Each structure stands twice: as C-alpha cells, then as structure tokens.
Amino acid sequence: MKHLIDPTDLTRKETDEIIALALDIIANREKYRDCLKYHKLATLFYEPSTRTRLSFTAAMMELGGNVLGFSDAKNSSVSKGETVADTVRVVDKFADIIATRHSLEGAPYVASRFSRVPIINAGDGSHAHPTQTLTDLLTITRELGGIDGITIGFCGDLKFGRTVHSLIKALGGYKDIKVILIAPDELRLPDYIKHDVCDRQGINYREVKTIEEVIGELDVLYMTRVQKERFLDEEEFARVKDSFVLDPAKLEGAKKKMAILHPLPRVNEITQEVDQDPRAAYFRQVENGKFVRMALIYSLIKWKDDPTHAMPEHEEYFTDVTLHCHNSKCISTHEDVKPLFHHTDEGLVRCVYCDAIVSK
Ligand code: CP
Predict the structure, then answer these.
(1) How many angstroms is it from 286 CA to the middle of ligand 1?
(2) Is residue 50 in contact with ligand 1, taking CB distance under 6 Å?
(3) H helices then E strands: how many in the chain?
(4) pLDDT value at position 359?
(5) What one-character DSSP code corresponds to residue 177?
(6) Residue 95 carries which DSSP code?
(7) Where in the chain is the domain with CATH 3.40.50.1370?
(8) What does 251-282 look like in DSSP terms, one character per residue?
(9) CATH code for 7-129+286-303?
(10) Which of 124, 132, 266 to mutate to test the pocket of ligand 1 (most atoms within 8 A of CB)?
(11) Quick one: DSSP state of residue 217?
C-alpha cells in the first residue's frame, strides 16, 4: 500500500503519473465524475486549514465520493487523550483513504504505521507538505510547460516553511534545477535540507539577501509567509515578520514568463497590486490543488493492493533506548510511539519522525 507522507515516497514515475492524470482530469472532467462513487475520504485536521482541507473535500466530491472527518480536534475524542495511532485505527474502519494535518511533526507517519488504508500527509508542523508540492509541480508545469531546467527563487520563511522543504526535496528528481534562497539570517533553510537534499541530489543552490539582485534570473518566484505560529519567541517573530514584501517595483527586470507562486495564506508579503500581474499564479495554483488531489486520491485508492506501488522498506531504521529526539514539536516527544532513528551519510543520527539530529 502506498501512503504519501513525504514527497520522496513517490517515485519520479509515480509523480509524473499523478501530474499527467491531473492534466487529464482538467481536460476531461466528465470522465471522472463518478469514478469513486461509494468511496469515502476522512479528513482529520488537528491544525487550521482553508485550501488543503476544502480542496480535498471538493476533490473527493468531484470524483463522486463522500467525505467525513473533523476540522477541529477539540471536537473529537482527541480532547479526551486519544492518540494518533488509536484515532487512525478507528477511522480506517469508516473510510477508504485518510488525509491528516497535525502540528506535531511525524504525526502522519505514525498514522501510516497503524492504518489499513492509505494516509496522506496534509502538512505536519514545519516538516512536510507533500500535496502542496504536487500542487506546485502541476502549477509550474501548466504555467511554464515543464519543470526540468528551471531557476526557482524561494523567498521569505525558509526555516519553518514546510512547503519549501517539500518542494525542494521533490525538485531533486528533475534535471538542471537551480535554487536561489532569499531569506534573512533568522529564517534560512535548515542545514539538513541543504546537505541531505540539495548536496546529495546535486541541486545547484545559493543564498542571497534580496529579491532585486536575482529577479532577472528566475523562472519561478516562490513567496512564503513568515509563520507566526511556529515561533517560540515573539520578539524574534517581530524582528523578521516584514522581511520581504513583493511589490510591482521589485518585479521590474523579471522575465516576461516568470510565475509567482505562493502556497497561501498571505499576510503582507505580496501587495495586492501584484495580483493584477499576469505572472501572479497563486490563485490558479489553488485550483490546481484540487485537480492534483483528485489525481492523488484516485491513484492511491487504485494502487492500494498493487505491490508495485508499496512503501519503501527501511531496514536501516533502528531503535536505541539511550537516544531521544529533543525536538519539542516531534510526535515522539508527545505520544507513546516507538522511537526510530537512522544514520546520515556523515555518521550523525536523525529522528525518523521529524528529521531532527539526535544526540545522546
Ligand atoms: N497552502 C495551504 O496549506 O493552505 P491552508 O493552510 O489553508 O490549507
């Protein structure tokens, strides 16, 4: 059975199949109208969402299926202390597929270890957001005609931005990608993404301080919000919250065919004047999110009993009672889950749930 917890759970071939299916759905909406009749999607959202939850709901409805679930865990038995593992072992009796968002990193991975139906990670803390990645890949494909060879600038909160982390991981599967990281020191991309993802996958990247110095090079400008909810320190948030604001003046010198993406919601990092620019693709990106989630739900249900679409075996994962993850946002520091680790190429130890480096 295939779950989607991290973008790397999909092979490049599977990702291409899902993008191609989304394009076919866009071109032939009627053909897919009833293809998941009598199937049910459960949306278990422990953290707020507009786009992701509603696009999953709309996607399942457009496939002829039904949707159940919760959008506020306080109104579920989670408020009585029910764990992620137990919740999923209940909900998999009612649904054919589950999409879940959680503020704790690794929670969807825990769900996947206990579920009898495919689990889709709809965002876990600052860690990963693989369905946003599929949305972004479909949007780049539709806006620019393809992904190989693009130069993409990521701007804003690259430290906590899970959409950025996931998209960079997925771009490792494409040819000749150049990544330009535009962020203040406090919000730079975590080292593990630079080393484990960019360096290992041969992604050419560099770090700069302003949009203006690179705007003319970019095929895609990927803007992000500074995420107040991820900061432990309010003063640090106040210092960086207005770091990068995209306005028409900053777009002078940009390519005519550049695409401006943003996972949304925005706060103030793109001024409303930019919305009129034909390169502003972020509301088209939202609709692509529905189409690609239709393709994903349909594919995961179709692949469920197909051994050629199984999750990778991770024989390198190990337990060690002397090791503990110290990431306060990791599911393993909140719920009674079996601690799991793996070694990095540099001989360090990483938590499987949240990717944090672990020390004795
Ligand atoms: N892009 C995105 O994840 O938006 P929501 O938080 O509204 O789901």
Answers:
(1) 9
(2) yes
(3) 10, 12
(4) 74
(5) -
(6) -
(7) 7-129+286-303, 131-283
(8) GTT--TT-EEE--S--SSSB-GGGGGSTTB-H
(9) 3.40.50.1370
(10) 132
(11) G
Q: Please, what is the Cα angle at 17 between 353 and 151, to 5 degrees?
A: 75
CA distance 350 to 360: 11
Identify which of 71, 134, 139, 264 to mutate to test ligand 1's pocket (most ligand atoms within 8 A of the CB).
264
Of the candidates 219, 214, 224, 124, the one whose C-alpha atom is nearest the C-alpha of residue 174 is 219
Alpha carbons 147 and 119: distance in angstroms, whole number:
27
Extract the residue ranges of the chain whose pLDDT is less than 50.
none
**DSSP collapsed to 3 states, 289-339:** HHHHHHHHHHHHHHHCCCHHHCCCCCCCCECCCCCCCCCCCEHHHCCCCCC
* Locus of tokens 């159940």: 68
Closest C-alpha among 168, 156, 157 to residue 130: 168
What is the tens place of the pLDDT at every residue in 50-91?
999 999 999 999 999 999 999 999 999 999 999 999 999 999
The sheet with strand 119-124 has its strands ordered as 66-70, 40-45, 97-102, 119-124
Write the residue with the smallest CA distance to atom 6 of ligand 1.
49
Q: Which residues contact 70 (CB under 8 A, 6 or more apart)?
A: 43, 44, 45, 76
pTM above 0.90, yes or no: yes
Please report, in angstroms and rounded to a whole number, the separation of the first and last CA atoms in the chain: 35
CATH class of the region 131-283: alpha beta
**Ligand 1 neighbourhood includes 49 CB (under 6 angstroms):** yes
Round to whole Å and give the CA distance between 156 and 225.
6
Q: Which fold has domain 315-360?
A: SH3 type barrels. (2.30.30)
Residue nearest to atom 3 of ligand 1 (CA): 52
Which pLDDT belongs to residue 13?
95
User: Sign of dihedral through CA atoms 9, 11, 12, 18?
Assistant: negative
